[in-house]
Amino acid sequence: MTSSDTMKPALASLARTCEAIANGRFDEVEELYQVITDEGVEVDIRALAETFSGMVVQVEAREFHSSQLIAELTETKRQLEAAEAKLRKENAELKTRLDKFEVTYDKEQAQAEIEQVSDSDYFRSLQSRAKDLRSRYKS
Predict the structure, then answer these.
(1) Are 14 and 35 in contact (CB under 8 A)?
(2) 56-94: string of b/e by CB count within 10 Å (b at 16+)?
(3) Full DSSP string of the chain
(4) What is the pLDDT of residues 116-138, one digit of tens each?
(5) Euclidean distance between the first and final Cα of the chain, in Å?
(6) Within 10 A of 25 (CB to CB), how many other CB atoms are there?
(7) How many other C-beta atoms can be found within 10 angstroms of the C-beta atom of residue 49?
(8) Which of 37, 55, 71, 137 is least surrounded by Cβ atoms within 10 Å, i.e. has the fewest?
(9) Are 17 and 28 in contact (CB under 8 A)?
C-alpha cells in the first residue's frame, strides 16, 4: 500500500469531520482522533487533524461558557422581573395609602374657624393679657 493509498481515506475522513464540525456537529470528532493516532497517515495530515481537534475543544468550551452565561442572564432577568413586580405592588399599596391621607384645604372653612376662635372670650382675654404684658414690659 502506497502513502497516497493511506492518505486518501485519511483526507476524506478529515474533510467529512471538518464539514460536520463546521455545521455544528461535534459527534464525529472521534474520527479526528483516529487520524491523529494512525501512524500510517502523514505527519502533516495528523498535525492538521490535531489542530482541528484543538479548535473543536475551544469551540465546545466557548459554547459551554456561553450557555452558562445565558443561564445566568436568564436567572438575573427572572429576579429583576420579580423585583419589578414587587416594586409595582408596593408602589400601588403606597399610592392607596397616600390617597387615604389626602388632605384638602377649604379656605372658607379655615376662615370660619379663625373667626370662631378670635370671637371667643378666651381669645379676647389672651389678647388683653398680651397687651397688658407688652405695656408693662415697655415701661
Answers:
(1) yes
(2) beeeeeeeeeeeeeeeeeeeeeeeeeeeeeeeeeeeeee
(3) --HHHHHHHHHHHHHHHHHHHHTT--TTTHHHHHHHH-TTS-HHHHHHHHHHHHHHHHHHHHHHHHHHHHHHHHHHHHHHHHHHHHHHHHHHHHHHHHHHT-----HHHHHHHHHHHHTSHHHHHHHHHHHHHHHHHH-
(4) 988 888 888 988 999 988 888 88
(5) 136
(6) 11
(7) 25
(8) 137
(9) yes
Q: What is the pLDDT of residues 31-90, one digit of tens each?
A: 888 888 988 888 998 999 899 889 888 988 999 999 999 999 999 999 999 999 999 999
Q: 27 is written with which cell numbers?
A: 459527534
Grid cell of 136 as nine digits: 408693662
pTM: 0.53
Position 32, amino acid: L
Residues 29, 53 contacting (CB under 8 angstroms): yes
Report CA Rg, the chain.
Answer: 45
The C-alpha cell at 69 is 452565561
Q: Which of 42, 51, 66, 43 is nearest to 18 (CA)?
A: 51
